[in-house]
Amino acid sequence: MKSFKRQINLVLNTEAHLAILHEQCHELVQFNTQAGSKDKLILWITEQPVTPLPGFKHIAPKHARQILGQEYALVVYDISLGIRANTLYSVMGCIHLGGRLILLTPYTDISLLPSALPQSFDTDIQPSRFNQLIAQELSHIGVNYLSEPNDLHDALLLWQKHQQARITRILPFEVNSLLSAAKSKQQMHAHTIARQLNTTMFNLIYQQKSATPNDILANFHVLIAERGRGKSYLLGMVCGLVNQAYCHHIFIVTQSDEASKAIRKSLNANEHSTPLSDRSFLTNGINIILVAPDDPRLFTHGPDLNHDEVSQTLIMVDEAASLPVQWLLNLTEHYQHIIFATTISGYENNGLGFSLSFLPRLANYHQHELDNPIRFLSPCPIEQLPPLYCSRHQR
Hints:
Layout: E1 7-12, H1 15-34, E2 42-45, E3 56-59, E4 72-78, H2 85-92, E5 95-105, H3 129-140, E6 144-146, H4 149-168, H5 173-207, E7 219-225, H6 231-239, E8 249-253, H7 261-269, E9 273-277, E10 280-283, E11 286-291, H8 307-311, E12 313-318, H9 325-334, E13 337-342, H10 353-358, E14 366-370
Parallel strand pairs: 1-5, 1-6, 2-3, 2-4, 4-5, 7-13, 7-14, 8-11, 8-12, 12-13
Antiparallel strand pairs: 9-10, 10-11
């Protein structure tokens, strides 16, 4: 079972190593295609221009927020020009069971790397204190440095074997037991949130018909979890548990189509859900629409208008900590039933505004936390890297 834990490897950035990486990755992509899956398995992060490859997703380090909510079997991060804190911590959570994070480096000592965020007033490129701290932490958790091509080849053969087992779902009993226990807790949280939503909606509709939105305590829920805990999938589960007698519409706010993949997968898994389009569903008689934060349908009514319709509308916000605090506050002034699902680690592109500025301004809310990872096994070697860094501290 230990071999199915995720791993971090430092790999020398040479042509020989890159050739092995591409060969092993292409073999897994081919296996994945033959198994009938269309998921992209490999995420390659680099500042250098690259040729698009089938089954690979390529992004620049500064665009790492685009992969929040996505999943990969292997993440290759070329750190030759330095390490970005937000990029590193963003990608760590999106790696599958048995997956790997490979850091491509030109040096055996990554503390010698240049700063990825040089100070504008400093004309000399100096090794950064941040790189030195990361090097120390990687050493403390025993990260392997695969300097020889044969070492990389052997490591990727084992990785490919485990990924084939994950794709075909032929996993050891111990692994399945841990994952099943995590999914049971996820279902428990989904039922708890849905029960609380239904109770408040019932009270609002049937016991206080004459009340205005300002007379009702807000039905706000905050779902907090680190990456890989299944919070996005849980949102889709809640959609199938909300009572259609109290809720007629659900808007799910996501920032990209790829980031909504887990939510759509959850909705499609519900036998009472009918997809009307790629971003709209009918589940248990409830209209469900996936929207972007700037969708005009979210704010076409005033806070005191369309009370009946608003009181029967549920809003779900995925990766809420990545959105501006003022946008979140505006949403609470227009709707009474909202679920904010998010990590609060600080790399979501909004600093710590969600936890430091937004939550203290909510009069009341229900907080829920998911602890058990579903995407991988716990304890996880990758998560041993302490979350002490964010972009505003990186120098």
